[in-house]
Amino acid sequence: MPINGAPDNLNTLSGENDVVVMQNITKTFPGIRANDNITIRLRKGEIHALLGENGAGKSTLMSILFGIYTADSGSIFINGKEVRIKDPNDANRYGIGMVHQHFMLIDCFTGLQNIILGAEPADHLGILHPKKVRKEIEALCDKYNFHVDLDVKVQDMPVGMQQKVEILKMLYRKNSILIFDEPTAVLTPQEIDELIASMKGLVKEGKSILFISHKLNEIMDAADRVSVLRKGKYIGTVDVKNTNIQELSNMMVGRPVQLVVQKGPAKVGKPILCVRNLTVYSHARHKEMVKKVSFDVRQGEITCIAGIEGNGQSELIYGITGLMPVKSGHVYLANVDFGKKKKVAQSEVVNFMKIEELSIRKRNNLGVSHIPEDRHRYGLVLDFPLKYNMVIEKYFTPSFSHHGWMDYPSIQRYSDSVIAKYDVRSGEGSDSLTRSMSGGNQQKAIVGRELDRNTPLLIACQPTRGLDVGAIEFIHAEIVKHRDGGEAILLMSLELEEVFNLADRILVMHEGKIVAELDPKKTTMEEIGLYMSGAKKMDLPPMEDLKSSDYQEAPVGLVTLEPSEDKKATAQEEESQKETPLEKTEPIDEKPDQVKPQEEKAEESKKALEEKEPLAEPVKEDLNKEDKEEVEKETPAIPPVSEVKEEIKPEPLMEAKAEEQAVPSEEQKPAPEKVEEVSVKENSNPEEEEKDNKPIRINGRFAKSSSKPQTSLKKEEPKKEKKDLDAIRLKNLVQFRDKKKNTGEKGDK
Question: What is the value of pTM for the model shown?
Fold first, then answer.
C-alpha cells in the first residue's frame, strides 16, 4: 500500500474500467496546500469513497473535478482521454454531476425551478415549459423515495429536503459520473438507508459514484473501495471487504480513536429550562409544527430530542431560541449567576424568567448558547473573517469593546485561542474568510464559540454534523465535560448513535408532540424507532405551569445597559414631579430679581397645605378643588406674561370679560412694587396696540414677552392639567389686583 505518495504506475492508466483518473493533482490556497500530489482512480460501476479529516482536501479535490477550482498542476482523464475542465458546464458535458456539501440553491426559487435551472425545457421561441418535465421529476422522486414538495421555495424547506433537491438536480441531468459530497450529513437514519439503496441502484444502471463521508458505518455499508487523505496528502486505497472501522479511523486520524463516549453517571440538579404548553406555527408549512409541548431541562443532564425529521424538532428549537415566534405557551429560563458557576451549582437557581417574547440577543445574554442546525443561515456570517464570527455574540461586552470602540487585539487573541483549542483549520487563521473554509471547520468554529461561553443552558442541534471521527470524539468529550460542570444541555440529533452515546434522557417527538420519555440505558434503537414512527405512544403525565411567585419578567434592563439608564432617568423625573406637586398647580417664573425664590414659595405653600390637611402619602398628583383654592389664596403669584399671552390668546371672550372686571378706577389703582416681575410698557399708544395686535392688556398694562428663556417647569407640566392651570392663573391675577387694591397702593397705567 503506498503511503504519503501516489501509486507507482502514475504515468499509465490501469485499463478500460477507469472512467476517471485524477493524476498528481496539486492545489494551493493562501497559507495552505489543500491537495499535495494526489492521484485517485474511479472504476466504472463502483462506489469509491473518499475518507479524511476536516480540511484534508476531499471537497477541494472534487471541486477540481467538477470545474469549480483549477488545479495548479496535474491531469484529469475521462474514459481514457485527457480533458481540461474549466467550469461546471464543461463537467456537465463530460457527464459529471455533483451534490455539494454546501447547497448550491437559490432560496427564492421553488424546488422545481432549482432542479431545472441551467437545463430548462424551452421551445424554439425560448418559452419555458416546466410542466413537460414535472412528471419526469416526480417519477424520480417516486423511484428513489424522495419526498420533496416541488412547489415550496427553498428558503422554506428543511435542510433534509434541500439535500434531496440537490440530488434531484444531478439525477435530472442524467449524469454518468456522480459526486456525492457528504450527502448524508443532514439526513435521518431512515433517509440515509434509502439514499444508500438508491446509490446502489444507480451503480447497477452503469453509473459511477465518488462518495465523500465522515461516517465510517456508511462507507462500510455502501462503498466498494475507499481512498484515505490526511492533511492534503494521499495515504492509500483499500478494499472495504478487507478492512474494518478501527483501521480506517486510524488511517484517517493517524492515531487510535475512541469511538464510544466515556462518561460517568449524571448528577442531576434543578431545572434550568422549563417549557410549558409551547405551540409553534409554521407559516411555510401552514400548520402547527409544535403542539402544546412541555418538558424540563435540568442541571448536569443531557436531554436529547429524537425524532424523524419534519416532526417539529427544529421548530421547537426555533421557538425556544427565538428564531420563530411562539403562538402560545411559555418558555422559562432559570435566573443563574453563570459568571460564578460551580459544579452542579444547585443553590444558584433563584427563580425563573419568561423569555418567549425576548429577542435572540437578549436570550443569549441571559445565558442561552445555541449551536444551530443550519450553520450558514443561523451560525455564521460567511463574508466576515473568522475572528469576527468568534465574537459575534459578545463583541459589545467590556472584554472586546470600550466606550463603543472595538478592542481588536483582544478579539484576535480570543479567536486564536478558540481556534487552537478546537483545531479549527484554515489558511490564514483568524483572518481567514469564513466562506473559504471547509464545512467541518466552520462547524468546529461554531461549536468552539458556543461551548467557550460557559452559559447555564446549551442548545446543540446536530453539533457533529460534517465532522470527522477525531473531531467528533473531542466534541463529545467537551459536551460531557460541560454537563459535569453543572450546565443543562438540550441536544437535538437525527443520529441515533449519537443520541445513545450522549443522552441521559431521551424525549421522542412525533407529529409535533412528545410521545415518549426514555432512559437510554433501558431502551433499544428498535424501541425508539417505534415511537419515532408513531407505532407506539407513552402516556405521559401533564406538567403544571409555573406559579407567578416562581418566575418574574425577564430583566430587560440587565440585558442592555442603555435602556436601563433611560428607564432610570425617566423614573427619577417622575419621582421629582411627584415630590413637588405644587409645581403642577402654581407656575412660577424663575427670575433672579424676584423677591422670594421659587424654593421659599414652594416651602411656604407646602406648609400651608400641611396645616390644612397633612399628607399621609408622599405624592398626590390631583389635589381636590378646596386644596387648590387654599393654595392659591396663600401663595398668589403672577405667571410669566409670555405664558399668559400664549395661554389666554385662544379665548378672546374670556380675555374681554376678565379685562372689564379687572380694570380699577383711577383712585384705586395700586402703586408699583419696588421689584417688578413683569416688564411694563409705558406710554403705550392704543393705535399701535390695535395695529400690532401682539401685546395683551392686563390690569391696564401692556405686557412684553420675556426675553429670558423659559425654564424647565413649563416642560414638566402635564398636558392633562393645562385647562385647570388657565383658570388658576386667571384667578391669581384677580386676587393680586384685589390685594393691591386693599393695601391702598397705586399702580401705573
Answer: 0.61
